[in-house]
């Protein structure tokens, strides 16, 4: 089982009408770690989600959505705090800009004492990402969980920077420096790396991450594809896939979910298996993840692909 942790919110897509005094909003369940969980569930893999979820309208919708999609809810913490809301506006190329309503909201309020002291043996991979890793008290709680489970399970980390939530980039850099040494797999976008380490070559950043103990470091480059390097010194790249872009919401989360699925289905879901993946295998993993992300870019919002969407057969039943 995969376990994705952190943000759970509603994306409210804004559309201006003819009247300057009106803005229409269309809501969709979102949040990077919940999107990753959705992607894994749609690719047929058991996945749970760890977060604090509200009893308000949006929280009830999130729980109903998880039930429909087959995402395990046993790790959820109930609260009466409101659900985080993200107002999403899209530019002409479908690239989103986010404004958040999040003071005192559910997913930002996980306390260290609410972190499970043990997890079921079935949990194989734990994924951390986005603003929940930098906003307190949830950030300290997730770091506690990562430290508790590092060495027992595969830890995955994607900074997924949201400067509109936390504008202090030094805060992000601090959390990256704490999370990366605990991780088996780290994925970041080239835009995130440019914010974190302006002027530094991507290859230099990835080399530092590998030196800290990471088995696989991946950078996504939007329409240009992705590049990865393993601890054993192998590297590969994949080109972008052409698609008529509706928006890019959830593309990186789709890439992450597909990368996990590819590693699992190829029998590489162990530290040694990940670190020793050869160039051909690595290139195939990246190409699959890029192809999956392109499907999401052709749809509105984080509507991640199923196995059928990607031309894959059903997974064999146990």
Set out the fold topology:
Layout: E1 2-5, E2 9-16, E3 23-30, H1 32-42, E4 47-50, E5 52-54, H2 57-69, E6 77-79, E7 84-90, E8 96-101, E9 125-129, H3 138-149, E10 154-158, H4 169-179, E11 185-189, H5 190-196, H6 202-211, E12 216-220, E13 226-230, E14 235-238, H7 251-265, H8 271-275, H9 279-297
Helix pairs in contact: 1-7, 7-9
Structural write-up:
Helix 1 (32-42) crosses helix 7 and helix 7 packs antiparallel against helix 9 (279-297). This protein has helices at residues 32-42, 57-69, 138-149, 169-179, 190-196, 202-211, 251-265, 271-275, 279-297; strands at residues 2-5, 9-16, 23-30, 47-50, 52-54, 77-79, 84-90, 96-101, 125-129, 154-158, 185-189, 216-220, 226-230, 235-238. The protein is α/β, with parallel strands linked by helices. The strands form 3 sheets. Strands 4-1-9-10-11-12-13-14 form an 8-stranded mixed beta sheet, with helices on both faces. The chain has a 4-stranded mixed beta sheet with strand order 3-2-7-8. It has a two-stranded parallel ribbon with strand order 5-6.
Structural shape: globular
**CATH architecture title:** 3-Layer(aba) Sandwich
Percent of residues in β-strands: 15-25%
Estimate the helix proportion, in percent.
Answer: 25-40%
Quick summary:
This protein has 318 residues and is of the alpha/beta class. The chain has helices at residues 32-42, 57-69, 138-149, 169-179, 190-196, 202-211, 251-265, 271-275, 279-297; strands spanning 2-5, 9-16, 23-30, 47-50, 52-54, 77-79, 84-90, 96-101, 125-129, 154-158, 185-189, 216-220, 226-230, 235-238.
